[in-house]
Amino acid sequence: MKRIIKCKNVIFFLCSVFCVFNINYASNIIGADKINTEKKGPGFEIAKEKKIISSNHNLENPFLILVNSSNPIDVNFVPPLKEVRGGLMMHESVARIVNKMIKDAKKEDINLVVLSAYRSAERQAQLFEGKVKANVEKGMDLLTATVEAAKINPLPGTSEHQTGLCMDIVDKSNLKLDYENENTLGYKWLLEHCAEYGFILRYPKDKTEITGIIYEPWHFRYVGVDIAKTIMENKLTLEEYIDIVSKAKK
Ligand SMILES: [Zn+2]
Q1: Domain with CATH 3.30.1380.10 in the chain
Q2: Which of 9, 97, 159, 179 is most deeply buried (CB count within 10 A of its CB)?
């Protein structure tokens, strides 16, 4: 028992150290003073050309809440929740939209299943701790295990699953959160249609250094239709989008 408590204390200490490190790291990436069109890549230029900044793009919009390692939310925050197909909970404003999207996909013989949706900070803590332990068992030292775990299971308060606005959704043929998802019809359908329902692929390929999270071809986040279309068409992340809009408003 004593050993478990000691281990938990060490994990907690490393989390704190990691958090401070990560906040500095992330603010360097998305900090306004660091904006550089070369670094931002083609998405940034395209977005500028198309003049995406219009009256529709208002950062006060509650569906634009940004939650990541440098923008944590209160661990006690609980959104208004409603059940989605499969019994999981999502933000009450989004649950109906998710159900409609699943229903519309079904009409085209696409079977989508939500594997994870709203998660409390407490649940997030359990997942994080489990991931650290699994990494240690794989032979990583505790610091590496903690850093790597945070790329997959963010620390409590830094996962956007706590907002109720996102979900892990897969094709019925592959009920796992792995890269086989890329080859499923469900994923292809989602990439093509998610924005019509206000969703974006939140952690795209090759954007880990901006989002801090690995590529996840199963994690979709609600931001509203107009913004989702802009983000998906321009291959942006939510961090990049918010950065562009806040710069333009200055
Ligand atoms: Zn997710």
Answers
A1: 39-119+159-250
A2: 159
CA-to-CA distance for 16 and 155, rounded, in angstroms? 10
Give the HSE-up count for residue 154: Cα atoms under 13 Å, Cβ half-sphere: 25
Q: Which residues pair with 68 in a beta bridge?
A: 71
For residues 70 and 84, give the distance between their C-alpha atoms in angstroms, rounded to a whole number.
29
Give the least confident one: 57-66, 120-129, 222-231, 232-241.
57-66
Residue 27 Cα, ligand 1 centroid: separation in angstroms?
A: 22
CATH architecture of the domain with range 39-119+159-250: 2-Layer Sandwich (3.30)
pLDDT digits (tens, 9 = 90+) for 116-134: 999 999 999 999 999 999 9
Catalytic annotation, residues: 216
Ligand 1 centre from 3 Cα, in Å? 31
The residue whose two tokens read 């208004």 is 80
